[in-house]
Automatic annotation (TrEMBL):
Transmembrane segments: 12-33
Highest taxon above the source species: Bacteria
UniProt entry tagged with the keyword Nuclease: no
Domain Peptidase S26: 12-185
Enzyme class label: hydrolase
Record carries keyword Transmembrane helix: yes
Topology term for the membrane: Single-pass type II membrane protein
Protein name, per record: Signal peptidase I
Family according to the record: Belongs to the peptidase S26 family.
EC id: 3.4.21.89
Origin species: Brevibacillus porteri
Length: 187
């Protein structure tokens, strides 16, 4: 009888420990640090297809503005509001358990423009606030880019892939609301 009671207590102890550990892992994943997989060629040569990156979620959690040239993960569904429920249900651990993929939703891009900036595409070059950008990280010069001028509104950023001629980015979906920046690449 004593050994049965001890076994039940041991099982209950292990179950509690496992539950607490899993809960902490999910909380860290939602609010602090999250892995993402690069999908596609849009960040070549900086990042390769299927490369894993780890993203600090603190910028998303505390809603602070990324710096120029930061590599960020964005939610490309800019036509809808993001909620805490999205952050919880779109957690990679839960998505993996449900057999879902985030490849079409979350994009890895580089921050090019911040609120108040004027970006100008002219002569197949990019200018920010009248200054030509020095971009040693891009794969090749942009081609077939129509001339355009964009002013970045408050609480938004403009992002682009490093493989400019093969990237869906803010040129396609528009400016990105700050709450759609899921985090900043750490390593």
């Amino acid at each position: 009888m004593r050994s049965d009671l001890k076994s039940v207590k041991d099982i209950w102890g292990w179950t509690k420990t496992l539950g607490i550990s899993l809960s902490l892992a999910i909380l860290v994943n939602i609010f602090v640090l999250q892995p993402f997989k690069v999908n596609g060629q849009s960040m070549v040569p900086t990042l390769q297809n299927d490369e894993r990156i780890y993203v600090s979620k603190l910028s998303h959690t505390f809603s602070y503005l990324p710096e120029y040239n930061d590599i960020v993960v964005i939610d490309s569904r800019v036509d809808r509001d993001r909620t805490l429920q999205d952050d919880i249900l779109e957690n990679p651990l839960l998505m993996l358990a449900m057999g879902k993929s985030d490849a079409k939703t979350f994009w890895v891009k580089r921050v090019i423009g911040k609120p108040g900036d004027t970006l100008e595409f002219k002569n197949e070059s990019l200018y920010r606030n009248g200054q030509s950008l020095n971009e040693p990280y891009i794969k090749e010069k942009m081609v077939n880019v129509p001339d355009a001028k964009i002013v970045i509104p408050e609480n938004h950023v403009f992002v682009m892939g490093d493989n400019r001629n093969n990237s869906d980015d803010s040129r396609v979906i528009g400016v990105i609301p700050l709450d759609h920046i899921m985090g900043k690449k750490l390593f």
